[in-house]
# Entry
Amino acid sequence: MPLLAIVALAVVTYSFRLVGPLCRGRVTLPPAATVLFADAAAVLLIALAATSALTNGHDFAGWARPAGVLIAGILAARRAPFPVVVLAAACVTALLRLVGVA
Amino acid sequence: MFIILNMSPLWRTRGSASSRRSASSRRSGLLRGSGLLRGSGLLRGSGLLRDVALVCVADGLVGLSFGATTVAGGLPWWVPVAMSLLVFAGGSQFAAVGMVLAGGSPFAAVAAGAVLNTRLLPYGFAVADVVAAPERAGGGAATAGPTTAAGLRGWLIRLLGAQVITDESVAFALRATDPERRRSAFWTCGLMLFAVWNVSVLLGVLAGSVMRNTNALGLDVMFPAVVIALALPALADLRTRFSAGTGAVIAVALTPVLPAGLPVLAALVGLATGWRPRNSGSRANGSPTDGSPTDLRREAVDEPTGER
# Structure
């Protein structure tokens, strides 16, 4: 990850943050745009979670990792506290690997 | 921070604290301070401090795992540290690093992170009034140029405040109603999160660089687990759920054939499957003049009830 990429992401991110405070009272954002941004973020995150749970490079990641992510999803859907979600996922995956499940 | 969408999983942990908070913050209204940078918000009302501290603990864990997984994946120590200081948006940090670690190009990583952070744009509109300097927040700040000392200070505060616009600080700000309380909630949460996030990432980097065989510890599952927990609250809407499901199938199906990073971006095609004009009644009934994200505002109102 080159420094230039980090700086580029930082500049883009900061400009998103700054537009609202700079335009206050002069420009408004259509509600449809707000909804679209939120949906795009949700779609990206779920796709990211799915690919990083199931794949390693171009290949299947094995069963231990998706099993942990599944537990995380169930716990998160049941509104378990955030630390519980993450630690439970890691424990499930680690235990599965300990007993020989890849 | 980053955290991404609305970090409602975090709110969950402080449901009981929230109800106590409303009583204590009413009492503490008399103690309202004046100087923003003197930390009046930090001193007023232990309820706010307690709630913010709980969010900081949860985000601290995320920061630890971000720092640890990034260096365990093979990236140099300064990458997570610089990202946390400069980008300060956890979801996009995880996304960008995850794509690079999976072999994706830095360009795709920046693109994915940027799309994730577009939500900060409506956030900025929603909290524009509290990001401004307090003495000008009543009105007219938008027209004040950096011509006087006070004007210059106001602009500096606004530039600094913009950097601490995060899911959490915005949610805290929108939860309060009167301007002074909104401001102290925003700044308290924003500044504390900035400190906690960067320190925890640094600690994670230290931990990750001494650990061996992190996969045996299940560390590789932390990233998708964090992302799932962050994204789930945004899936309350059936249409969004459909878009996300379609996008995930597209991304996974394309992973064996496309260069790393691109499948996740291709998932945005899923947006089209769920998109249809919505009736504006339920979503757009906020204040049409300030373009606030009414979703967030509604959640901010609901949240103290502990429903989420």
User: Anything to note?
Assistant: Residues 179-210 of chain B form the longest helix (32 residues).
